[in-house]
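It is worth pausing here to work through a concrete case rather than discussing structure prediction in the abstract. The textbook approach is simple: state the sequence, then state the predicted structure, then interpret. We follow exactly that order.
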Amino acid sequence: HHAHRDFGEGFCVFNDAVVAARAMQAESLAARVLVVDLDVHQGDGTASIVGDDPTIHTLSIHGRNNFPFRKRSSRQDVELDDGTGDEAYLATLRVVLPLALAASRPDLAIYLAGADPYEGDRLGRLALSKAGLALRDACVLATLHAAGVPVAIAMAGGYAEDIDDVVDIHFETVRLTLARGTLA
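Step two, the predicted structure:
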């Protein structure tokens, strides 16, 4: 989500979310796509590539003081302060995700499920617990399911000291998705 049209950045060689969205559009499988970017870092590359294209709506919930330090405007950016924890994060998500759905009316959602909002992440600066991240995933999946929107999930950042924490977080995302049966 950091890769731009003509250069990679921030551990991203190419922008898989935009490539996937454009492929679905080219194959007439989705006319309108919602990118739900919940990596702790703003998806500046995605914002740069899709710009004001009304067919791809990007919701990015990210750390205000974190990389990239020069943010690009997504269709819907929500900047959180360092140390934001479960309660404030989930309250924000519950408000802005339905707004993104209403604004985008998507045929498909691409969910970047970042493990880096985790309180133990070296590069994250937010303070979500593993339980909070599972509630985040459950909220996204339930909201999209209730709206009848299929979802494709990409695992995103995770830089915890203990790699097992990152694996636990991503595993729970997959487990919740399979239990709900909402994978596109």
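Step three, interpretation. The chain has a mean pLDDT of 90. The chain is about 40% helix and 15% strand.
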